Amino acid sequence: MDLRQLTTFRELARTLHFHQAAERLGYVQSTVSAQIQGLEEDLGVRLFDRLGKQITLTNAGERLLPYAEQILKVAEEARTAVSGHEQYVGTLTIGATETLCTYRLPAVLRQFHFLYPQVRLLFFPSAFSALRRLAIDGQVDLAFLMEEPIASSVFHAQSFRPEPIHLLVSSDHPLAQRSTILPSDLEGETLLVTEAGCSYRTQFQHQLSKAGVQPTAMLEFESIEAIKQCALIGMGVAVLPAITVASELEQQKLVILPWSGEPICLMTQMIWHKQKWLSPAFQAFLAVTRQVLMKPLDQ
């Protein structure tokens, strides 16, 4: 068992796809297969189940993954220690929701890559419900979420800016001309929402339940863009962060409904494990993120 095999195992466990793992690692697919086979032979267990083109971690693979993460983390720390503390090298693995990957983080990445081009960044767009677990398990170095302020004994958390959530409809929707929208006005409407576990969807549903309102239908999407497109053609009422619809609002393609319920406002936040070793590259990324995301919105 060597570091290359463990690196390949970790990447395949993340992607569950031989071709994608090979691309991320810069290998040909046969090299990935050979390294996994060698690791399985060395350990005497099967790490992946292969079902046609689909692969999944076996129980043994799931047990190995946190150890592999820890071994590779210590190896990275050792490399940094002997190469000098001012060396901004290595790999940072970052998890984030689709919204933040698309609308908040590009400015951070541009600035960081300009200052530290030798640091490799790996991004894992993830669902709300998965991000904390990815950080706990060490599968990502840090994660970006849109939630209420987090207080945790496990994570360091930093909040940056408020993210208001709106109810939106197309400009020709029957509700678009209303001066106020009560929870009861949504009775019989189709709601266009994100996946279960999403913080703002949970808050909104709680308000409806408290008011005794049952929408006619709730269409659930993993894609923000899909929700917007469905709202634009009048399929229903979308529940989305303001940052995702700035262009559509400016062009008056979507209309914000004047919601009479409690305002829903979350925070863009960055979390990382309290036991995480902060390499020079990691510290630099934290500093750049703070610099960029703490700026006023008009800068």
From TrEMBL:
Keywords: DNA-binding, Transcription, Transcription regulation. Residues 1-58 form the HTH lysR-type domain. It comes from the Bacteria. The keyword Ribosomal protein does not apply. GO terms for molecular function: DNA-binding transcription factor activity; transcription cis-regulatory region binding. This is LysR family transcriptional regulator. Belongs to the LysR transcriptional regulatory family. Pfam families: HTH_1, LysR_substrate.
